[in-house]
Specification:
Layout: H1 3-16, H2 24-33, H3 41-57, H4 59-74, H5 79-84, H6 93-103, H7 115-122, H8 128-134, H9 137-147, H10 154-180, H11 183-188, H12 191-194, H13 198-218, H14 228-251, H15 255-279, H16 283-302, H17 307-314, H18 316-330, H19 338-366, H20 372-392, H21 401-413, H22 420-460, H23 467-476, H24 484-511, H25 514-519, H26 522-528, H27 530-567, H28 576-589, H29 596-628, H30 636-649, H31 661-676
Helix pairs in contact: 1-2, 1-4, 3-4, 3-9, 6-17, 8-16, 9-16, 10-13, 10-15, 13-14, 14-15, 15-16, 18-21, 18-24, 18-29, 19-20, 19-22, 19-28, 20-27, 21-22, 21-29, 22-28, 22-30, 23-28, 24-27, 24-29, 26-27, 28-29
Length: 682
């Protein structure tokens, strides 16, 4: 249907009923403006220009459309559109998620008396925000100008709309005050109670503003004050929010605190917008603010039922905190000098030794006859306690590094705080540390498994794995004739999730004050004694995240394969260190009767499994870390070129520690000492 015919039908409907308020024609008009594809902004622009042309050529139709819109707005309640759309609900995260999930199958009831519900019907396509936001502001301003602002009863229309806006201002102000007095905010920033709260003062200022504005509507001779004082108080409220965020960076954060801060920030921003709309001194200024508000409301309404958007907005600060703590853990996985490099190698060798025994235990468990659930429990316990033992003994599993080091690199990229050449050197150190960790894990996992297999044969007179089992183990790591690489990718996802879990529990230990709360337990103090209790709780506070991450990582590795068996799906995991140990078991189980092709395929499979483990884990961790910081790194090509140049000029540095670093440090210290003693250099 054409724009001209819709305008004609609006005129006919208003001729029969001047108070016509049905939105059917307005929906059809917006459908005419809507492009065939949301991203075709030029088409939407042309459609709006066509409407402007018709309105300009036919002033009578412009008047009828203006009266029609005024009738739609004044006969419905506008407050909820301004106070609720685009602002986080005052319910818990899981309640909001379940509500949005249910609405996908059973949409909420539409109340025609509320503009908020009507607005959702007008822009009912979930991608409408693309073209509405994509059209230039000036095009929308031209449309508003063509519509005009003179209606048949301007005083009544203006009074109704303004009173609704004033009511929205008061609602937002009361909400800001209520959130500012929440116990969780006071707990994170006690100074709110020591001084006069800006959250309370802004409400007093808003009430005075609304009273003066209402009086001015009645008598225009009364001088109307602007909202500059309110702006100062709102700025103070935002400063408190920033201080709470800084405290959260040190003490941890919760989803509920994130939701409160988000709701508070959104309410302050919306209050500012409405105040600027009321304070605008010209129609053009008001239209500019209205265009921005229109785009904001359409975007918010389109995303009102999005579970993904809910997760992104409600967990943003928590995600940042989790990745921030993972980044701090990542600092321990990056070596800078020769001694740290060798220490990393020793810790990786120790982990490889333990993994050799873990692989043996899993093989023994596999010989038992149980249901998949039984295997899942035993495998999970084996993996979990093995990985936790590795952590307690200060050893290193190479595949645990990427989830931590990715967050460290993301923190360096954040807002360009680190120069590209410095970032390149950081990546070189990360890769060098990763390399020696992998070599250390494999370097002792294979000999340990090999020794265990021969010791088992010497003690029991038969091999730990039968020839059939050995062929099965080799088939599992064949990258060309099995699902080894997809299974390695699943393990990479598990590694990434374990990194997030570690960050979550580190954050929880800090935010919930778990060590201090444990020290309050009388029975635990009697059991351990004062000094031992202090050491134990301090250790839990420092290592809860790592222990939890290792535990749940073990559970994931132990259960995924059995879930595949239970559901009949080709789902399993492949881990580089366990794959290398299984290769050694298979080699002994076959009495070294193995062709060079099988050996080459198996070793290639181990390497490729490792690359997939590390690549998937690192990529996912980097993506989450960058998104949590709202960072978009646009210098990827430049960084790649610098890395390649660095690799060509110093390939050795990507794998081995710097040769003369300690000597340079020694020389520097010696020179400093000589200069201090005023002695000439040797």
């Amino acid at each position: 249907m054409s724009i001209d015919s819709i305008l004609s039908r609006i005129a006919e409907a208003r001729l029969q009923d001047p108070a016509y308020r049905d939105i059917r024609f307005l929906r059809e008009l917006i459908a005419c403006l809507r492009p065939t594809h949301p991203h075709k902004i030029n088409q939407a622009t042309d459609n709006i220009r066509a409407l402007c042309y018709v309105l300009h050529q036919h002033p009578a139709r412009a008047r009828e459309l203006r009266e029609y819109l005024a009738c739609i707005l004044t006969t419905r309640k506008t407050v909820h559109l301004l106070t609720d759309t685009g602002i986080t609900q005052n319910i818990g995260f899981w309640a909001a998620a379940s509500q949005r999930f249910a609405e996908k199958f059973l949409p909420p009831l539409v109340n025609d008396d509320y503009i908020k519900d009507v607005f959702g019907l007008l822009f009912d396509q979930k991608m409408d925000h693309h073209w509405v936001g994509g059209v230039a502001d000036q095009i929308w301003l031209d449309l508003f100008q063509c519509l005009g602002s003179r209606v048949s009863n301007p005083r009544a229309t203006y009074a109704i709309l303004t009173n609704d806006v004033l009511s929205a201002i008061q609602v937002l102000s009361y909400r800001i005050t209520t959130i500012g007095l929440e116990a969780e905010l006071v707990r994170n920033y006690p100074d709110i109670e020591k001084f006069e709260s800006p959250f309370l003062r802004q409400n007093d200022a808003i009430n005075d503003y609304v009273t003066q504005y209402s009086n001015w509507l009645i008598d225009k001779k009364i001088e109307r004050e602007d909202s500059l004082q309110i702006e100062v108080l709102l700025t103070q409220c935002e400063e408190v929010v920033q201080k709470i965020r800084k405290v959260a960076a040190l003490q941890g954060v919760s989803v509920s605190l994130t939701r409160l801060l988000l709701r508070l920030t959104q309410s302050i921003r919306r209050l500012r917008t409405i105040l600027s709309l009321l304070d605008s001194r010209s129609t053009n200024d008001a239209n500019k603010i209205g265009v921005g508000l229109l785009k904001e409301l359409v975007l918010a309404d389109n995303k009102s039922s999005s579970i993904r958007d809910l997760m992104q907005t409600n967990t943003e600060l928590l995600s940042l905190q989790m990745t921030e703590r993972a980044g701090k853990s990542g600092e321990h996985y990056v070596t800078s000098n020769r001694s740290e490099w060798y220490a990393m190698m020793r810790s990786a060798l120790g982990a490889g030794f333990i993994v050799g025994f873990m692989a043996m235990i899993k093989i023994l468990f596999s010989k038992l006859i149980m249901a998949p659930f039984g295997y899942a429990v035993l495998y999970s316990l084996n993996y979990s306690f093995g990985f936790m033992l590795v952590h307690v003994l200060h050893m290193t599993i190479a595949t645990k590094q990427p989830a931590m080091t990715a967050a460290l690199i993301a923190r360096s990229i954040d807002q360009g705080k680190q120069k590209l050449d410095e970032l390149v050197e950081l990546i070189v150190r990360v890769l060098r540390s990763q390399f020696i960790a992998i070599i250390g894990n494999i370097g002792l996992a294979i000999p340990t498994a090999y020794a265990i297999a021969w010791a088992w044969y010497a003690i029991n007179g038969h091999h730990l794995v039968s020839p059939d089992k050995a062929h099965h183990l080799l088939g599992d790591i064949d990258p060309f004739h099995s699902l080894a690489l997809p299974h390695a990718a699943i393990a990479g996802v598990c590694l990434f999730l374990s990194g997030l879990i570690s960050g979550y529990y580190d954050n929880k230990a800090s935010y919930s004050n778990i060590p201090a709360r444990l020290r309050q337990l009388v029975w635990l103090r009697k059991l351990l004694g004062e000094q031992r209790l202090q050491r134990t709780t301090d250790y839990i506070g420092d290592n809860l995240g790592a222990l939890a991450g290792n535990f749940f990582f073990g559970v994931m590795l132990g259960t995924i394969g059995q879930l595949g068996v239970f559901f009949g799906l080709p789902v399993d995991i492949r881990h580089i260190t366990f794959s290398s140990a299984n290769f050694a078991f298979a080699l002994v189980g076959l009495d070294h009767v193995m062709s060079w092709q099988v050996v080459a395929t198996s070793l290639s499979g181990i390497m490729l499994i490792g690359l997939v483990n590390l690549g998937v884990s690192f990529s996912l961790a980097m993506m989450v870390a960058l998104r949590s910081r709202r960072v978009s790194f646009g210098q990827g090509n430049t960084l790649n070129r610098l890395l390649w140049k660095r690799f060509m000029t110093g390939t050795r540095d990507f794998f081995l520690p710097p040769k003369d670093l300690l000597a340079e440090v020694t020389d520097t210290q010696a020179n400093s000492a000589e200069k201090t003693n005023d002695k000439p250099p040797h």
